[in-house]
């Protein structure tokens, strides 16, 4: 594997935390969904954010990335207050998988290459190094043989791997992945777990929203559980107990079933993969 994905933080014990939330509060219509959350994520750590549906996991991820404004508190990225942070090329965001947003049809390679736009100098064309980074990102997620296919031809799990390759192609060292395993079949989960393991081993910071640790159990160093917008556990990952420990237990989840047919719009067209931030 190339050294290009190597994070800097994991090798430097003096590095400032990748993410810091200080008493972060977010309310929608007056109802707090993040209720004074304080959290430091050291550079180089692989951390899972767990919790029941609606507990505020996605809101916390969006808040640390500045997508959702805080009502109170503060966020720092790599030691810099969010409002002054400019080094967005360091951050790779893997959003939840499918939306009905208006993306254009695109090949796998085009989607992955779109992850480099923020990192390239304005108006410059992709360099040989950029193209090489796309090749390596595709290789990292095991999709190099699908690079010229339309993303619409891929399964949901493969599309999720495309989104991760897209984040890798920008060469960040800090990743936020919102439910990368949701609606992904077992084979693609294993492929994703291998990629995330590689990132952790190479010193990147990886923050993942998960419903269960599953195939990532061996790579998660720390788990933070939210409930009703507050941190109720922070430490070694808790093993599931009771009903959740039962073999075959299925978390109640609003995301698509991996075996369900591809979602279609009112005209019968398959809903396309959104390409956020590809401007
Ligand atoms: N844009 C919004 N406007 C109003 N309410 C919102 C908005 N986004 C989220 N919420 C509400 O905030 C609460 C927390 O939502 P959030 O998506 O952060 O939870 P979550 O833990 O990620 O849930 P899930 O596991 O279902 O993805 C929920 O009650 C949700 O309905």
Automatic annotation (TrEMBL):
Query: Basic and acidic residues compositional bias: what residue ranges?
Result: 246-256
Which residues belong to any copy of the ABC transporter domain? 19-253
- Write out the ranges of the annotated region (Disordered): 238-269
Show the SUPFAM superfamilies listed in the entry: P-loop containing nucleoside triphosphate hydrolases (SSF52540)
Q: Reply yes or no: does the keyword Lipoprotein apply.
A: no
Q: Does the keyword Nucleotide-binding apply?
A: yes
Q: Name one Pfam family in it.
A: ABC_tran
What InterPro entries does the record tag this protein with?
A: AAA+_ATPase, ABC_transporter-like_ATP-bd, ABC_transporter-like_CS, Metal_Ion_Import_ABC, P-loop_NTPase
Q: Which GO terms describe its molecular function?
A: ATP binding; ATP hydrolysis activity
The UniProt keywords, alphabetically, are: ATP-binding, Nucleotide-binding, Transport
Q: What is this protein called?
A: ABC transporter
Q: Which organism is it from?
A: Nocardiopsis kunsanensis
């Amino acid at each position: 594997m190339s050294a290009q994905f190597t994070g800097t933080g994991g090798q430097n014990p003096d590095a400032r935390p990748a993410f810091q939330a200080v008493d972060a509060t977010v309310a929608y219509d007056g109802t707090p969904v993040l209720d004074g959350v304080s959290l430091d994520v050291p550079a180089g750590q692989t951390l899972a954010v767990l919790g029941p549906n609606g507990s505020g996991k996605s809101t916390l991820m969006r808040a640390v990335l500045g997508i959702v404004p805080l009502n109170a508190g503060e966020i720092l990225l790599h030691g810099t207050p969010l409002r002054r942070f400019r080094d967005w090329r360091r951050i790779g965001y893997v959003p939840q998988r499918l939306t009905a947003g208006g993306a254009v049809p695109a090949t796998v390679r085009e989607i992955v290459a779109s992850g480099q736009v923020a990192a390239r100098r304005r108006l410059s064309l992709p360099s040989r190094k950029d193209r090489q980074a796309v090749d390596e990102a595709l290789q990292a997620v095991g999709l190099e043989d699908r690079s010229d296919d339309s993303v619409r031809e891929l399964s949901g799990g493969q599309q999720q791997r495309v989104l991760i390759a897209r984040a890798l192609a920008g060469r960040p060292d800090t990743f936020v992945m919102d439910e990368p395993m949701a609606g992904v079949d077992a084979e693609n989960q294993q492929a994703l777990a291998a990629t995330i393991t590689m990132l952790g081993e190479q010193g990147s910071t990886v923050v993942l929203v998960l419903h269960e640790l599953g195939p990532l159990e061996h790579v998660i160093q720390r788990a933070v559980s939210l409930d009703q917008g507050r941190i109720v556990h922070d430490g070694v990952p808790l093993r599931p107990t009771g009903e959740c420990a039962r073999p075959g237990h299925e978390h109640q989840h609003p995301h698509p079933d991996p075996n369900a047919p591809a979602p279609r719009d009112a005209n019968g067209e398959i809903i396309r993969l959104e390409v956020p931030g590809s401007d």
